Amino acid sequence: MYHIVFSADESYIKYTAVLITSIVFNTNKHQKMRNEKYYFHILSNFVSNKNRNKLLKLQNTLDKLFPCEIIIHIQNDNDFINFPNSGAAHSLKIPYYRLKLSLIFNKNIEKCLYLDSDMLCMCDIRKIFTIDLHNKIAGVVGDLGSKKNKIKYIENNKKIIHRFDENYFNSGFLLINLKEWNKHNIEQKCEDLASKCYYIKAADQDLLNAVIKPQHQLKFDFSYNFSTVAFCYVICKDESKNRLNYTRSEFNIASKNPKILHYGEKPWRFLKSYFDYNNKNINDHWWQIAENTPIFNRELLKNKLKTNTHLLCAGLGQELLKATLKFNLFKIYFLIKRTNDDSRYIYQAKKIQDNIFGVCCILGTAILYARNSNKNFFSVYFKSLKIIYHFKKYANKSRA
């Protein structure tokens, strides 16, 4: 029996359906053992009757390929009143729902796998459940970003700063040993810490990293939670401190055969972004499954026709790239403040070469963020300089 957990609000149900479909499609039906079955658990604050009926039909269709059951668990944000609104949980408490697994599993279930809904399975996921956790609390994958994050909280009237190190992991993939999880009282420890925090950025991820110490983690290969932006460029631990906690050699091996893709630029918004080791647009992998996802595929394909976010981001990013290299601060100011000319950038993006399309998307996202957050053009310029420098230095190494 394989218990796999997702978190999804009403709008993310269709994307979770794609992930579920990818899991079933990549299961080797010829190697099925007796009594094997997938239990897909969806944690949500609300699921409409329409989506419930769709999920039931999805379940019945996929069950013909491999035994499976989709179970919906409705939770209440009021149960997470002690958890701060910040970062990924700035508007909804859904990211924290995975911190209450004891509410959905009985003591007979020893292991579960948590996956973010913006993932795609590329392997027979049953093999992950065969990995021996050796009495560790969880199997985890190192996070791609900088490890300079911190949590600030108050304890005994004193302000305390908890700083993270190279062991910082991404909570989008967690193979959880439920016995050890409960034994170490992880859920209560997370809630206790959350109630004391006055600064926290990555919501549940920061809490889990603070509570699950390195000696209780089993570090998995990066391929199990392959962040797709790494196909653009990545900085490994043998190149710089506080970066991806894998060597360049380890990363290159993972990049040739990623088992689970974790999308930063969501495929339903970005039809094109980065290119994998075989020079295939990684978002095409997702859409190939989406087009064949039972029940939900029509809705997904209808939305696909309206999507041009990737072109807007890439077009803006290309202009920011050129402006940064020419030290044209006025142009950067213009990109942030003037939004009525965006249609021209969408058109220009269609001509961008594949080898820089990804970095243009990253730069374009910086422009859109600056617009929404009222960032000044100097901060965008310096951020752009950093992105361009890292891209030039590390992009080719990712193809080695």
Explain this structure.
The model has no long low-confidence stretch (mean pLDDT 94). Helix 10 (309-325) crosses helix 12 (342-349) and helix 13 (354-373) runs antiparallel to helix 14 (377-394). A 7-stranded mixed sheet has the order 3-2-1-4-9-6-11, with helices on both faces. The protein has a 3-stranded mixed sheet with strand order 5-13-12. Strands 8-7-10 form a 3-stranded antiparallel sheet. It has helices spanning 13-25, 49-62, 126-129, 178-183, 186-196, 203-211, 248-256, 282-290, 297-304, 309-325, 329-337, 342-349, 354-373, 377-394, and strands at residues 2-7, 38-44, 68-74, 111-115, 119-121, 138-142, 150-155, 158-163, 169-177, 197-199, 217-219, 226-227, 260-262. The protein is built from 14 helices and 13 strands. Helix 2 (49-62) links the parallel strand 2 and strand 3 (68-74). The chain is 39% helix and 16% strand. It has 2 domains: 2-221, Alpha-Beta Complex (Spore Coat Polysaccharide Biosynthesis Protein SpsA, Chain A), CATH 3.90.550; 308-399, no CATH class. With 400 residues, it is an alpha/beta fold. The protein is globular.
Strand and helix layout:
Blueprint: E1 2-7, H1 13-25, E2 38-44, H2 49-62, E3 68-74, E4 111-115, E5 119-121, H3 126-129, E6 138-142, E7 150-155, E8 158-163, E9 169-177, H4 178-183, H5 186-196, E10 197-199, H6 203-211, E11 217-219, E12 226-227, H7 248-256, E13 260-262, H8 282-290, H9 297-304, H10 309-325, H11 329-337, H12 342-349, H13 354-373, H14 377-394
